[in-house]
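Q: I have two molecules that I believe assemble together. Could you output structure tokens for the complex as a whole instead of separate predictions?
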Amino acid sequence: MAKSQTELRPLGKSVGRKEDPRFIRGMGRYIDDIVLPGMLYMSLVRSPYAHARIKHVDPSAALEAPGVKLVITGEDLAAMDLAWMPTMAGDKQMVLATGKVLYQYQEVAAVIAESREQAEDAAQLVDVEYEPLPAVVDPIQSLDPDAPVLREDREKKSNHIFHWEAGDKEATEELFRNAPVVVKQNVRFPRVHPSPLEPCGCVADYQSSTGKLTWYVTSQAPHAHRTVLSMVSGLPEHQIRVISPDVGGGFGNKVPVYPGYVCAIVASLKLGRPVKWIESRTENISSTGFARDYHMTAEIAAEEDGRVLALRVKTIADHGAFDAAADPSKFPAGLFSIVTGSYDFKESFVEVDGAYTNKAPGGIAYRCSFRVTEAAYLIERVMDVLARRVGVDPAELRKRDFIRKEQFPYQSPTGWTYDSGDYEKTLDLALEKIGYEELRKEQAEKRARGELMGIGISTFTEVVGAGPSHTFDIMGIKMFDSAQIRLHPTGKVLARLGVRHQGQGHETTFAQIIAEELGLSTEDVLIEEGDTDTAPYGLGTYASRSTPTAGGAAALCGRRIRDKAKKIASHLLEAGEDDVVWDGVSFSAKGLPDKSVTMKDIAFAAYTNVPEGMEPGLEATYYYDPPNLTFPHGAYIAVVDIDKGTGAVKVRRFLAVDDCGNVINPMIVDGQVHGGLTEGFAIAFMQDIPFDEDGNCLAPNWMDYLVPTALDTPHWETDRTVTPSPHHPIGAKGVGESPNVGSPAAFVNAVVDALAPLGVEHIDMPIFPWKVWEVLREHGVNK
Amino acid sequence: MRTYQGDFFIDLPRPTVWAFVTDPHQMGSCIPDLLQLDVESETRFRALVRVGVGPVRGKFNLQTELTVTEPEKSGELSIRGGGMGSRVDMKTKLTLSDTENGGTKLDWRCDAVISGPIASIGGRLIDNEAKKITEKMFANLRESLSSVSKQAAAASADTEEPGSTD
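A: Yes, here they are, computed for all two components at once.
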């Protein structure tokens, strides 16, 4: 049960979510709820072809249609030098196509009309003549020297985007040469999509009278969007106000800047009226930030007993037509080099090559800290391949190879410094809680009867919370984050942060952090995010970074307030500052606990009775640049039964033991874990965006791209261990993405474990029943 | 690209079949769900057809052009067009050959590139839909040809045995 919100010292307690009363009553204010006087609507004309030359675009019929105010083409934007825009990954991307189109559903023209219906009808009338070109949808074929060059705008005449590597190649090769055991496995992480319930959209409102643009947009990073918009458009940054209202799910889908946004802004600038653009479901899935699409090969060199020596990974990354993965600028493959995971590899060498294809751009979204999901899935899958090869139980193998508790801070062979962890403790708790020994006995009995039951383990390590700013930036903007706290005279608090929540519960958890620091209750603290005119600058919410960065800022900002409060307390208590002590709820003079002043007393005094010479008021801003990332970890165990007749996999049990450091709100952490596991389950069993050879996207809707419902979703069991981050102000690490990162491997390992008696070593996601059914038939079951 | 192909036999001599399949008025009328036919020349016609594949429903505007490869034997029908943001680009090869009993065998092969929502949203349904459309097209063709065949039979009966028909 949720605890009352008036309780003092709320940190670590299951305080009820302050945002829920409006969400569960349908009173959230999402982007499509924004309606402004005189507002127009925009609809986009999109390419039916994945690759084609544009012969001409004729908007004349559309312009004559009822209600149409404006049609924007690529040539119109080119005249404004806006036909292309920079991507966050340092590439550029077409806003509206000129010359040619590079993926199906690419934006070709924008139609603005009095109503949404009129805009959509008129969009059908824009006459575009195409000359189809051969499409390249496979990144391996795209890297073939004979493949047609897709990006003719680039100097480099090939589809190769980047080569990136980490680790010591020579030292790794040396260990492989002499290793008693080497295992190798190709692993595909399919192209998936975050598919948030609320698609992308915006309302651009340019007021010619003031020269100010207010841009309502469903954004996870409003400040970054403001800066990018200013840089692209030349509009002065103080004349741009970005407001990200309630966000109906983001999962990384709402980090990039999309062409529709630029078109809506251009339309508002040209017409002097507000312009709304809301995507359809198909537009969202087919054209906005997808996730993964990694073709990976991993090799492990090990001793006979399964002790790992070295890891070698080669990856082809399909980035689509433009490199629009919102990675930190020095990390074209994100944080993928965390791929050594929880294991003490002596050496590792990791290579990633990015490729252009005739598919939509994107690549890092979906509840993932910059490619850590691909990395965690790969290593957890391949550790199981090794376990089977050396004949060691997968739980035992992991224990042999874990980085030991005493090795932290741990230097990984690819250059990361893990802050803290206790992997064995977490796995032991998971094994005990799920009843591992008994499950293995049951499995042996079932196998003897020919039944297919599997147990899958994943003991992943994450890397989240980017900054620190010396290593991490996006388009040059350093990845710190911020908090600003203002105490009103009656002791109530308004706090604003540089991040933007989308369901994470910031209005509650950040209120808990600040209330804890100030000796107040969460009810006393109002959290505001998402308005760039009021909130301090920050890089936004994604990659599980809010608690590691803005959460740190909130705590330190609270302490900054408390420093001034202590001076006021000393004045009110008539005691020397050194004699004033804080007990977590109030200040008192040493040895005189009966006479105390609370933050409420101090807030009033700050505006009515400050000591002489002190500046009145009680507010502070803190920009927190974390000294390192945080490294949450977990031990997940899935138990599955497979129906030999249909190939259907039933997840009988799933236990997630997470260690995200100190917990701010256990109920919210459990909720985050439940949601992430549900997504991980969907990725493992239901989700894929395939393309046919002509580049037609074959799953741009919820009939073909599946989102799990309550009926599909297994029951989740959760528990946790606590290994605080040594450097974070409240010892927290971030948890939002752990379940999505850690669970796919547990599901797949369980399925492969069930099929292992047949000789199956690997099966690629998504594990549809028909795929299992085919594997069963191939191995002589149910012929 | 998707390929569909088939063949069928017609109880008419090859030149008659050839004259039929190369006549835009005749051939155009065989298109299923035809709403409007505009014959532009002896080798070109425009057709407005009703299309429905799964949730994608609407009208397609198709431009058709016939190229003769070898007179009375083979030709190619190129069909291009679309609607509702979707496109089709089809090349259909028709080859006629004589059968032993004086009839004609018609071999057809259609290479189709289908793009846009009709291919992506209707992806799972499109092969069956295309099969249905082509089957209907050739069923119409056969029906029209059989009426041509009957007319021809009647006409020849008229010339050979005047006044003898019932």
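A: One point stands out. Residues 161-166 of chain B have pLDDT under 50 and may be disordered.
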